[in-house]
TrEMBL record:
One of its GO terms (molecular function) is ligase activity. It comes from Mesembrinibis cayennensis. Coiled coil: none annotated. It is an enzyme of class 2 (transferase). Keywords: Ligase, Transferase, Ubl conjugation pathway. It holds the Pfam family zf-Di19. Pathway: Protein modification; protein ubiquitination. This is RING-type E3 ubiquitin transferase. It comes from the Eukaryota. Residues 44-63 form the C2HC RNF-type domain. InterPro entries: Di19_Zn-bd, RNF_E3_ubiq-protein_ligase, ZF_C2HC_RNF, Znf_RING/FYVE/PHD. The gene is Rnf114. GO terms for biological process: protein polyubiquitination; ubiquitin-dependent protein catabolic process.
Amino acid sequence: FCTLCLQECLKPKKPVCGVCRSTLSPGSRALDLEKQIEMTETTCNGCNKKMYLSKMRSHAASCSKYQNYIMEGVKAVTKEPLHNTRNFPNRFTFPCPYCSEKNFDQEGLVEHCKTLHSMDAKQVVCPICASMPWGDPNYRSANFMEHLQRRHRFSYDTFVVCDYDADEDDMMAQVLMRSLRDK
């Protein structure tokens, strides 16, 4: 987990697990999980070297063949950018729906709203969702701050190569092809 996610789990009066949301005991560690990670073998997708799962992160950071493997995957699903962008909605910067301050990236909008509008109960349209092909520009969130925390903690583009013009079947086909190459 990243620090921000862990901090969210520890905020309540009774801290909770980031996965199952059960109450955490102070200072308790998942020793069974640590042992499983120490004893589970895996293979590097770059160099095919066998190692324990606990060593994989440091290995992947230094394995040039693994880095090449990742870049090949990115190239396989990345398409050439379209040159005519006039008809495409802006999915990179957003106005604040409360005060209309402009040009926030997704993380900036979340932080701005947490800092300045956390107590504002006015129902507003999420500008991030409204910019997406599946978004409804007229839908007003009953609890916008909760929506931001749950849906927009991270940018989609950080974790996936987004092709907003591809339909669901095309995206599923790309995922299946990539998974077959990974074996």
